[in-house]
Predict the 3D structure of the following.
Amino acid sequence: MNKTIFINFVVVVLLWGLLMPKLVLAKASPSPIPTITPSPTPEVRVDLTQKSIEAGGPLEALLKKQTVEKVWPFNPIKSAIRNAVAAGVPANTIVLLLLLPFVAAIIAAARHVVGIRGFGIFLPAALSVTFVATGPVVGIGLFLVIVTLATVVRFSLRKLKIKLQYLPRMALILWFVSLGVLGILFTAPIIKYPDLLNVSIFAVLILTLLVEDFIRVQLGKSIKTAITLTTETLFLSLLSYLFLTLKPVQTFVLLNPEVSLLGVGIFDLILAKYVGLRFMEIWRFRKLTTL
């Protein structure tokens, strides 16, 4: 007991010795004139899905630097791109459209050769564009919130023994998901996260499409399978997002659209001829192949 009192006394004396000089100086010296320090300007994230100067300006500058001499037979798409941009079509929209075949080829190769599953090809590709629009942090956060809400609502309905047909049940789940996303957006002024303030309905709709597939797999198979497929879909989407945001790739497809589109088409044809085991299957059955 005496030891505890002694330790407390020492702590009080140390705090008094540290704080007392500052209090005396604060009373004796006049208060300084407050100076306003400029807050650092936050770095603006370039969003290819929006028609903005930050996103389209550098791409349009690249088009102006490149000279196109003869339109036929090697430069028809280059010429068409310049005509479209001159008419008001955003350059970033054209870049995204040129990159979508690349993204689809990457996802197809990951599924067909590597063995990563997921919810089809178009949904991971759409999710990757959603991550471009929202940013990966906000996109994954909304994704986790929406999937968690949908799962909790589904299990709550089953626990309460409320029997609903499939379509009304999905509509009710969407109702709860909308409330959850609204709750997140209502907290945006408090959190003051820039990417959260610019979330569009497009991103929410794409994420909601993933929830429908997630619930369908839960009903048809199991929640473990649904989580596995959802995780693999998320992985494919993040991989495609990294590809979409690479500046060298954007520059290449914009300045060489004929080469990029033809190359992706040839790659898809070669990929379709592959009929061997997937890499994950080779790893899974490695003990059998070594016998």
In short: The two ends are 73 Å apart (CA to CA). The CA atoms of residues 77 and 257 lie 6 Å apart.
